[in-house]
Amino acid sequence: MPHTPHDIFQRSTAPVTIDADKCIADKGCTVCVDVCPLDLLAIDVAKGSAYMKFDECWYCMPCEKDCPTGAVKVEIPYLLR
Ligand code: SF4
Ligand code: SF4
């Protein structure tokens, strides 16, 4: 794919990823969903794990910090580091 100036604003993956193998939403955990101030995360009941429902992240980090199993990974964009 040719590189355009717009590439810098595009992401191939969501900024917040949840490791479904570590996530214990199937045991009733909703910590990351509860702490996100923007309500971006949700539980996929069928899969028994959390996922990013809306891609509007503020990179405030409590979802990653408060997850009891370390399943949440927030990818802070290069431009905000
Ligand atoms: S970093 Fe903040 S805004 Fe982004 S998903 Fe986590 S809690 Fe929500
Ligand atoms: S806080 Fe962690 S274990 Fe709990 S639902 Fe979210 S990703 Fe899953």
From TrEMBL:
Gene Ontology annotations for the cellular component aspect, listed alphabetically: cytoplasm
Pfam families, alphabetized: Fer4_7
4Fe-4S ferredoxin-type domain: residues covered: 14-46, 48-77
Keywords: 4Fe-4S, Iron, Iron-sulfur, Metal-binding
Statement: the UniProt record of this protein carries the keyword Zinc: no
GO molecular function per UniProt: 4 iron, 4 sulfur cluster binding; metal ion binding
Matches recorded under Gene3D superfamilies: 3.30.70.20
SUPFAM superfamilies: 4Fe-4S ferredoxins (SSF54862)
InterPro entries from the UniProt entry: 4Fe4S_Fe-S-bd, 4Fe4S_Fe_S_CS, PSI_iron-sulfur_center
Annotated protein name in UniProt: Ferredoxin family protein
